[in-house]
Amino acid sequence: MNVLFSWVGALSLVLFTGLSSMVTVARASTNPTVNPVVLASGLTNPWALAFIGNGNMLVTERPGRMRVISQTGVVSAPLSGLPKIQAQGQGGLLDVIVDRNFETNQTIYFCYTEPDLQNPSSDRNSTALAKAELSTDRTKLLNVKVIFQQAPKFASGFHFGCRIVQAPDNTLYLGLGDRFSLMQQAQSLENHIGKVIRINPDGSVPADNPFVNVAEAKPEIWSYGHRNIQGAVLAPDGTLWMHEHGPQGGDELNIIKPGTNYGWPVITYGENYGGGKIGAGITAQTGMAQPIKYWTPSIAPSGLALLTNNLYGQAWQDSLIIGSLKFRYLVRVSLQNGQAGDPEIILPELGQRVRDVRIGPDGLIYLLTDQANGELIRLDP
User: If we measure between CA atoms, which residue out of 368, 370, 291 comes closest to residue 333?
Assistant: First the structure.
């Protein structure tokens, strides 16, 4: 794929509704050429990547493997030491990040589909978050500890969420899905279904979480009313951006704030698969947040990165870069003066499901493509 791609100008239709805007057709604009360079291939449904120094990267594969890819594209054997993972449907080994002090503590965090260890014969599972140390020879995980388990466990292969962000105070945010059939539980504070949770690196609950002193509420909850979070990034100004899948339409880009209800499934800009309204079919209700952007039809967003440099030109500086599983391209959303601009299509010729998007230590954009022969791609300006 060492060829230059360019974009052709096209019209976008953007309808504004209060503070949110609906994007029915993302706008492709004339941009400088970019060179997608395939660094590694032969990955089985890769899900996330993290940078571990010296040009090396950790990559997760959904079937339950974690590998190291060198700066020259050499793919290692699977690392040992992972906990038991249930790879079923959309579940398996999912997100991975490195600790903010990785250079000194070699700590990573990863989330995955955890089976019901108390009843192995059942199909029940849930999203779990673990921490571990990467061995100096980069072949195994040491001192693995599960620091969070979504409750309750449920027999389903859908909507695990599983995007991790670490804040400057070292606390961890984890976006969780509604498990599909349990979507009504996204409105309940008595479980972790359809929530963003916030914990300390040891798994304890920060004292300033919004529901710590609310009776019957899970103290880990930071926000609620989410469907299936698939992208998360923390901006330098402290803004926590996340996006999530809608049903048929209604994918959302949100700014996540403590104690906020994001509405699912009471309000949504989507509809049931095959058609038909969800619930009362309303899109707004007092006390429920509106998305910053929403997509109809769905683009099935996955992966979210914030580009703060101008390596791709001044116009791209301070932009969110979003992968699309459905349409197999990237989307750029410019952030200027605290406002999100009209989404633009990037790389419509890519033709691969984009699962993860990251900005490397070199300031360049890296992608993972979700397929049986998945690729790690760097976008050179």
Answer: 291
Biggest distance spanned by C-alpha atoms of the chain: 58
Indicate the CATH number of 13-380 among 1.10.8.60, 2.120.10.30, 1.20.272.10, 2.60.40.10: 2.120.10.30
What Cα–Cα distance (Å) separates residue 344 from each residue in 11, 348, 371, 379? 10, 10, 24, 17
Give the per-residue pLDDT at 25. Answer: 46
Provide the pLDDT for residue 1: 39
Q: What is the pLDDT of residue 337?
A: 83
The helix (run of H) or strand (run of E) holding residue 232 is strand 229-234
DSSP 133: E
**Assigned token pair, 346:** 């990037």
Cα 370 off chain centre by: 13
Distance CA 247, CA 278 (A): 9
pLDDT on residue 3: 35
What's the DSSP call for residue 44?
A: S
Structure confidence at residue 34 (pLDDT): 87
Q: Is 183 helix (H, G, I), strand (E, B) or coil?
A: helix
Q: Given this model, what pLDDT does residue 33 score? A: 74
Q: Which residues of 100-122 are buried (b: 16+ CB within 10 A; e: fewer)?
A: eebeeebbbbbbbbbbbeeeeee
Beta carbons of 137 and 56 less than 8 angstroms apart? no
- Sign of the C-alpha dihedral computed for residues 20, 22, 28 and 34 taken in this order: positive
In the β-sheet with 56-61, what is the strand arrangement from edge to edge? 46-53, 56-61, 65-69
d(CA 238, CA 361): 20
What pLDDT shows up at residue 32?
61
Low-confidence ranges of the chain (pLDDT < 50): 1-19, 24-25, 30
Examine the residue annotation and report whether 226 is marked as an active-site residue of this protein.
Answer: no
67 CB burial (10 A radius; 0-12, 13-18, 19+): buried
- Sequence ranges of the domains in the chain: 13-380
End-to-end CA distance of the chain: 14
